[in-house]
């Protein structure tokens, strides 16, 4: 009997009972009318499940290498999650991207919108929003009573997001009304009848609950919130291990980030010379932004270009450089129904009836959409990035248990792979005739390297090195404003509104942003180690297959498992 797989499957079943939002995200039917319990009791129930599962796994013996890898990977994830809960890190979930309140809103993007059942599910889930919001409010109050409150910047920014969803920027930006109006039956809008009433009422109740939550944030929580953005080295180290799946030397990685950024910018200068000889990087960027052939001014047309690039890349890479399962040779590029500034990927449903999708929440006012800027984004979010990695994991039912296929996620592994994918496409020659696209890729790389510097530097309260390669503010201490200043100086392809969102994201989601570049660093090291072990038998396509077939996991157990192949 495969006891490890059995425990893993039991865990998934329990998680889906505790988290209807997770069930919807995975495309598992039967829970689309419900919302999670976000009260202290709800978080405690998840922690208790983790404790029981850890105990069961520790007693179980794997029957083969596949189960050994699964046991190590699952234990690493659950132990770290439980450690963060028991250390009182739950209050850090209130941030501008990954809070419970964002989860409640974003889940509606994934729900079917046509048919009687879809209408009933959306109406029921909308009606459940007020209780879920009240439960999350209860959790944040309990955390505050223990002296644990997110930084004031996060509290106020989340309140602003709530305003935006509720139509603060105009009637057309009322997410809840737009959601209710988007539901159809047999493709026709629902204009009257019980479904229309239920949807309208649900939208009104959800909007009122979100308004109440914003008031709570501003009037009750913000006065208790610290002005200081840094979480401190202890909490940061714990978050870093969770997001990377491996313990890193924070001081060494901070120093490496400075040098890596300098290396990338030297490459950018050389690439800019090929585009506009004699021009600086900034002058070259301005030149590209004025080229009508390199840009769109309509976001829908830009979305269509991204879709075409994603489709053609899948067709070109399949069977040549990667084993791409047939089920995931479809991806959807979408404009998100909000304007928060995030770019994100959502995986396919369990049965692949809902394809994986890349979403772009375009900030209000953005009018320029550069092909050269975002070519690498399509590779990052699509193939060979997230879509290949997540989709292949979902498809490998013969190799991975349900936990590994559906719930296992480590940012360092996943985002590290996506950033590795951007760089890999350069290695494979996909920028050979496109120096502008390569400049965009390098700028994206510089952006991620700069995040290593600012995130570790601010949250661990390191000073800016006296001998930093840019001669920038030597010896000074970090704060949110210096973070923005540094990012703007080293990022050319992101508008100020998006950059402001990114800065706030780092400040509120400590340890997550460096996981991209640090993850890429560890992926490159894993490939080098694999190459050294295989010698003359090394094959790049085989490396990718072997690595991805292990599924997602922390990068420490990943390195151990890969070393045994």
Architecture overview:
With 565 residues, this protein is mostly helical. It has two domains: 225 residues, no CATH class; 277 residues, no CATH class. The protein has 23 helices and seven strands. A three-stranded mixed sheet has the order 4-6-5. It has a two-stranded antiparallel ribbon with strand order 1-2. Strands 3-7 form a two-stranded antiparallel sheet. Helix 4 packs antiparallel against helix 10.
Supply the key terms:
4% strand; globular; 2 domains; two-stranded antiparallel ribbon; 565 residues; 62% helix; three-stranded mixed β-sheet; mainly alpha; 7 strands
Brief description of this entry?
With 565 residues, the protein is mainly alpha-helical. The protein has 2 domains: 225 residues, no CATH class; 277 residues, no CATH class.
